[in-house]
TrEMBL record:
Taxonomic lineage from the root: Eukaryota, Fungi, Fungi incertae sedis, Zoopagomycota, Kickxellomycotina
PANTHER family reported in the protein's UniProt record: NADH DEHYDROGENASE [UBIQUINONE] 1 ALPHA SUBCOMPLEX SUBUNIT 5 (PTHR12653:SF0), NADH-UBIQUINONE OXIDOREDUCTASE 13 KD-B SUBUNIT (PTHR12653)
GO cellular component: mitochondrial inner membrane
Recorded family membership: Belongs to the complex I NDUFA5 subunit family.
Record-given protein name: NADH2 dehydrogenase
Taxonomic superkingdom: Eukaryota
KW Transmembrane (keyword) present: no
Subcellular location: Mitochondrion inner membrane
Membrane topology term: Peripheral membrane protein
Annotated organism of origin: Coemansia erecta
Gene Ontology BP term (one): respiratory electron transport chain
Keywords: Electron transport, Membrane, Mitochondrion, Mitochondrion inner membrane, Respiratory chain, Transport
Keyword Membrane among record annotations: yes
Length: 130
């Protein structure tokens, strides 16, 4: 009897060990589809100049390349290093939802009112002391 690679991997992984997240036997193709949808949504809804779009595109392209280059789920999880493939699917779905919200919020536009003086000084690097 011959079994496909996806079925073989599914038989190896019985549980994710995470309550509410079952093993997904079709995870790789689903994840690829979500990454493609993420890139399409970004292009359609968020300006190229937005830092949010640039960041999400960079991460998504990097992860999509890994998923395209490797069929072994364990290797994909190891290289992306952000959880199990089922968690990566949840993350991608959440990002797609966030894209619509970011488009609605237009977070890349200037503030309606200028920020108070010294508001961002907390985030500056402290001066070196001797």
């Amino acid at each position: 009897m011959r079994i496909t690679r996806a079925l073989f991997q599914a038989t190896q992984k019985v549980t994710t060990g995470i309550v509410g997240i079952p093993v997904n036997a079709n995870a790789r193709p689903q994840l690829l589809g979500l990454y493609k949808k993420t890139l399409d949504e970004l292009k359609a809804k968020i300006p190229e100049s937005a830092v949010y779009r640039q960041s999400v595109e960079a991460i998504t392209v990097q992860r999509m390349n890994i998923v395209e280059q490797h069929e072994d789920t364990a290797r994909i999880e190891e290289l992306i290093n952000c959880g199990q493939i089922e968690e990566l699917i949840d993350q991608a779905e959440d990002e797609i939802k966030l894209i619509s919200r970011m488009a609605e919020w237009k977070a890349w536009e200037p503030l309606e009112e200028p920020a108070p003086p010294r508001q961002w000084e907390y985030f500056k690097k402290a001066p070196a002391t001797e």
